[in-house]
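Support request, please re-run this one:
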Amino acid sequence: MASYSDTRRNALQYQMSELMNMPEFKRKPSAVIQMLLSNGQTLVSSKERAKIDAIKSSDQDTVEVSILDKQAITAGTARAYNHSGSINDSTKATLSFITRTASFKYSVKQADRDAVFTLEQMIAKQMLSAIHSIHDNLETYYLAWLNTNKSQVANTPSIGAWDGTNYIYGVASGDEDIMFQRFKGFMREQYYKGQFQMVSNEFITQKGEFLANQGQGNSTNLGWQLSGINNYGSTELANASGYQGQGYIIPFGTVGLEPWIPSLNRTGFGNPFQNGGAYYTMPDPLGTGLTFAVHEYAAGADNQSAAGERQDVDIEVEVSIDTAPVKAIETTSNSSPIYKIGLLT
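Re-run finished. Output below.
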């Protein structure tokens, strides 16, 4: 329905519990967002993050990050009295911020004649719906970003196969029970070690859950291979042709997500009933740690046909956030710490 007018009918009505509301407010997992945010300050320190807010004071400002290059130096075979070398360089990358918004409207009098819901309950569910919309949009965007930014080059693996056309490392179907060990072995052959992050679809996620629970009491213990891998299950990641399951594997600390909101929201300004409206922030109720910018303003309205009154006030609300993905810079052309992986059929 378009408004709350149906709840004003002269019939016995009641509110469903929050548990009963869960099916209506279910949402797809924010696997990629959680993975990018989990890197915390490993890629961009809190000191550098503060600079982002200082440098980027408006939607139009750009932010650059720099890294010292790995210098190409050829090894020699003998010492020399007149040895000479070259000066190193650095590389700059611009953070590409994207803006996502979600808007809704409520009336200050819409709950006056509603015996079921309070105005606060109505607004809370609208706010949650708006934030769900932003989450869903960002998850789709950043899943596509992983695919666009995956490495197109790799050292030839000793086990499994590197698809140099679609840029995917594939594990043979017969190695399904040890595919996580194969994934880690492939990354070692790319000269990466330590902790790894993964985003995978349901097939690989479920296999990982199964293996993790095959403890030492089982005849074959396969859970050991998941050590050092933190996996995030995605319901949106589809298989390419020829694969039973797919995902991405990334060394911890080599990708991240930088959020930004305007300074007027960060400091707080105004109120909905003054010229220009109110600017404030809203912490993510979904628990990611993100903070959203909120802007709202008031306008007179006749809402007698929409659960309000003839003399009423509408509050127009917009929730927004800017985010920029951060990826470790490599001077090798088309090389990236993001690798697409899969289990072949």
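The CA atoms of residues 73 and 111 lie 72 Å apart. The helical segments are 18-21, 31-38, 46-55, 119-148, 179-189, 202-212, 263-267.
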